Amino acid sequence: TSVKQPYRTSYHFQPPKNWMNDPNGPMLYKGIYHLFYQYNPKAAVWGNIVWAHSTSTDLVNWTPHVPAIFPSQESDINGCWSGSATILPGYKPAILYTGINPQNQQVQNLAVPKNLSDPYLIEWVKSPHNPLMAPTAMNQIDASSFRDPTTAWVGPDGRWRVIIGNKRDRRGMAILYRSKDFVRWTKAQHPLHSAKNTGMWECPDFFPVSAQVPLGLDTSINGPNVKHVLKVSFTNHDHYTIGTYNSTTDRYVPDKGSVDSDSGLRYDYGKFYASKTFFDSKTNRRILWGWIDESSSKDDNIRKGWSGIQAIPRTIWLDKSGKQLVQWPILEIEKLRNNQVVLPNKLIKGGTLLEVSGLTAAQADVEVLFEVKGLEKAEVFDPTWTNPQMLCSQKGASVKGSLGPFGLLVMASKGLEEYTAVFFRIFKGQNKYVVLMCSDQSRSSLNNSNDKTTYGAFLDVDPLHEKLSLRTLIDHSIVESFGGGGKSCITARVYPVLAVEDGTHLHVFNNGTQSVGVLTLSAWSMKKAKIN
Ligand code: DQQ
């Protein structure tokens, strides 16, 4: 019996079947990229978690391997949960991960490659000293909230540091441990950082970024012109702050205005969770992997036999403002671009819907550059509008405005019974213009068992002096959008009934009263990648 699979991706990473969640231990070793991930070998729902493993030489095409880490000792017999890789001196990779012990306590374990001359690092052996870090009566760590070790870094005293996600009551924390030999770890007196009312911090990530050049830095780098980023996952989102790390006191202090709360900065304002970066020493980039969950029902996931994909890896760096990060799909993905379709420079009048044809619209990469005119006609921004997602839900694609909504209708059916709208609206604020970016899924499918929540973000672009760009990667059931060159990202999952395969269309639209210029629009059909 063959089930139709209109929602499987063609160039977003996923295993052939079953459940996948967090990306784990990404690294580059001897010219080969490794991706491990949380995987259930038995079903399309979470459970029986092992570290599945794939490798690649280009981050686009992937070869599957046998699971690298699976329950085999007391310290991980009930599950091998998330963790990270560190390359130790002598060019030796090491993985720290969370194991679930027979008492269902969360403990931290070490695994190392069995054979360093195998470039694929297929077999991993666990330390006989596991667990290396465990909750005890002495350290008062909550055994159900102690997980997801980061990549370790070296301080000025030569000792290794690692942080582990934790909470105490409602306070989220990044517990710090130090070690001389990577085997014996001692808990520091104080956490690296914590914040009240955030709940458990899952999958922390802590890394330096250059304040001078848009390049990545290896994890132990610190000094002048280096800022640090702390990312933590809670309430379904990956939140980050930018700040300063003092490696002598081992404290991280977020910059003023950089807040650890639900209203702070996010990597992505749609679906994107439990992400992790690694430093690519071959190209001096820092690369971000993130898990994109389904928006379909559990029953549908079981029926289709799989659940979870990974976002296209993103290069990540500090914006020149120093106030936020910028993300962009890795350049390698552009080698899948095929049959470019170009829309010549054009003024899009209010009320226009313009089809972009000649491409496989269900498997595409679209880049568009808008020029906004008549800014004095922008609607006035109400300063009580502090929640962009709410604003996008109230002012969806069908709600007419002055400057906007304008953008792309993707995954659209022929008769527009279904579409996903990715668009902008521009408002006149107190002393600057406010750009709102939305991904409206409310009309994405005739199947109402899907979660069709609309997502939104503010975009730090000044339309008076800058052009407004939008890039959208479309891949059957994912719409991954980058506004303003990657200053705000919104990822959505959609499951159309009519707009599948060749029944899928792409349009540019302007539902505002003011005209908008399209300076350039390029759309490519995307070739299929080898994703396992
Ligand atoms: N997923 C893992 C945990 C982590 C959570 C378990 C985040 O280690 O905290 O599969 O999605």
From TrEMBL:
Keywords tagged on the record: Glycosidase, Hydrolase, Signal
**Stretches assigned to the Glycosyl hydrolase family 32 N-terminal domain:** 12-329
CDD domains under this entry? GH32_Fruct1-like (cd18624)
A Pfam family of the record is Glyco_hydro_32C
Family annotation (InterPro entries): ConA-like_dom_sf, Fructan_Metab_Enzymes, Glyco_hydro_32, Glyco_hydro_32_AS, Glyco_hydro_32_C, Glyco_hydro_32_N, Glyco_hydro_beta-prop_sf
Look up keyword Signal and say if it applies.
yes
| Gene3D superfamilies associated with the record | Exo-inulinase, domain 1, Glycosyl hydrolase domain, family 43
Report which superkingdom the organism of origin falls in: Eukaryota
- Describe the location of the Glycosyl hydrolase family 32 C-terminal domain by residue ranges: 332-525
* Record-stated family: Belongs to the glycosyl hydrolase 32 family.
Name recorded for this polypeptide:
Beta-fructofuranosidase, insoluble isoenzyme CWINV1-like
The encoding gene: LOC115732732
